[in-house]
Amino acid sequence: MNYTTLPNTSIKISKICLGTMTFGNQNSETEAHSQLNYALERGVNFIDTAEMYPIGGNADIFGSTERHIGSWIKKSGKRDEVVLATKIAGPNRGMTYIRNPLDFSKKSITEAVELSLKNLQTDYIDLYQMHWPERVMNMFQKRGVQELDPNWQDNIFDVLTIYDGLIKEGKIKHIGVSNENPYGVMKFLQESEKHNLPRIATIQNPYSLLNRLYEVGLSEMCMRENVGLLAYSPLGFGFLTGKYLKGIPENSRMQLFPNFKRYINENCHKATKLYKELAESNNLTLTQMSLAYVNQQQCVTSTIIGATTLEQLKENIDAFDVVLSDDILNEIEIIQELIPNPAP
Ligand SMILES: NC(=O)c1ccc[n+]([C@@H]2O[C@H](COP(=O)([O-])OP(=O)(O)OC[C@H]3O[C@@H](n4cnc5c(N)ncnc54)[C@H](OP(=O)(O)O)[C@@H]3O)[C@@H](O)[C@H]2O)c1
Asked: Which of 71, 100, 127, 230 is the most exposed place for a label (fewest CB within 10 A)?
């Protein structure tokens, strides 16, 4: 396992971060514990979760991902061996069962942190992330020029002040953003510098062969400013294993959650086919090439992988041993030029 540090800290984190959003829905508590044990055996020490998980969540099961991690922490006694990242949900009309309103007010952040601490059975969170911004902007599937959100009032100073208090109380150690754009990152950095408030250490955004939008704008900003990318969905929800090329397999994410359409489009299909041919002509699997690609990028601090079985988890961790040659990287660029960023 290769390691790095959480930017601007001396906290050692593995280059692979274990994503957990299947725990509590697709994966039982026992399976969640087996994944955590296996990942740790392989040297992973970085775990990502969120208050709203699991995927496909609803009022009955939200928080179960954190609770399964919490029961593992209690049972294993390994709290100090892992770097734990979780997230507060931003505004979303369909998720008011989490809190109402879902915002980054002092009341919401304090409640969210307390609930995560309880669920995770710990007294500190290493990295506390805002799952998505409060303002309406281009995240998830949105493209096109957005009108400026007339309802958003710049409260970043207030938000950072709340985090400062929580850091001083020892409840959270560091902060990060997610699904952000260059404007949001810049504002957070400006406000922390101006007022000597906590500085965001990370940005958790999608990054894969099917979505390299991070490379435009964010990559330079974050590398120069030492904000680390935690790359999520490196396999494009599983598309970059090639398993959707012949239809939708039983019990796969796309079958279980058909509303997760980000990667279902003709160009994703075409690009995936080309990437698969390229991988196989170089004696690699598409999964290996896709994960190795993300891992090899200078802008990536850690890659957040996800799995629903131990076999997938093993295959994915093993893929990080692969180093892509310059020839393969050049071929990847040719496909990217042909079908740039087919997934939003
Ligand atoms: N900040 C955010 O908004 C955000 C959004 C998404 C994810 N995340 C984080 O990033 C983590 C990873 O994201 P992700 O799950 O979307 O990553 P991903 O690597 O793109 O997709 C993982 C899914 O693909 C399938 N899969 C993985 N490995 C496979 C293999 N070797 N063979 C066949 N199928 C395989 C599995 O789904 P099936 O078995 O169900 O098909 C697995 O759950 C999440 O757990 C979460 O922590 C954050």
From this structure: 100
Cβ-Cβ contacts under 8 Å for 272 (sequence gap 6 or more): 210, 236, 239, 240, 242, 244, 245, 286
Number of domains in the chain: 1
Alpha carbon distances (Å) from 91 to 54, 112, 133, 145, 224: 17, 13, 8, 20, 30
- CATH number of the domain bearing residue 304: 3.20.20.100
Kindly report, residue by residue over 232-287, the tens digit of the pLDDT: 999 999 999 999 999 999 999 999 998 888 888 999 999 999 999 999 999 999 99
Q: Is 301 helix (H, G, I), strand (E, B) or coil?
A: strand
Q: What type of residue is 193? A: E
* Model pLDDT, residue 232: 98
Nearest residue (by CA) to ligand 1, atom 45, is 19
Distance, in Å, from the CA atom of 44 to the CA atom of 46, rounded to the nearest integer, reads 6
Residue 331 lies in a domain: no
Domain encompassing residue 96: 3-238+297-321
Mutate-to-test residue for ligand 1 from 120, 132, 237, 259, highest number of ligand atoms within 8 A of CB: 237
Q: Which residues line ligand 1 (CB under 6 A)?
A: 19-22, 26, 48, 131, 178-179, 204, 232-238, 241, 243, 252-253, 287, 304-308, 312, 315-316
Q: Are strands 125-130 and 172-178 parallel, antiparallel or unpaired?
A: parallel
Q: Exposed/middle/buried for 304, CB within 10 Å: 0-12, 13-18, 19+?
A: buried
Q: Establish if 329 belongs to a structural domain.
A: no
Q: Which residue bears the tokens 């669920």?
A: 119
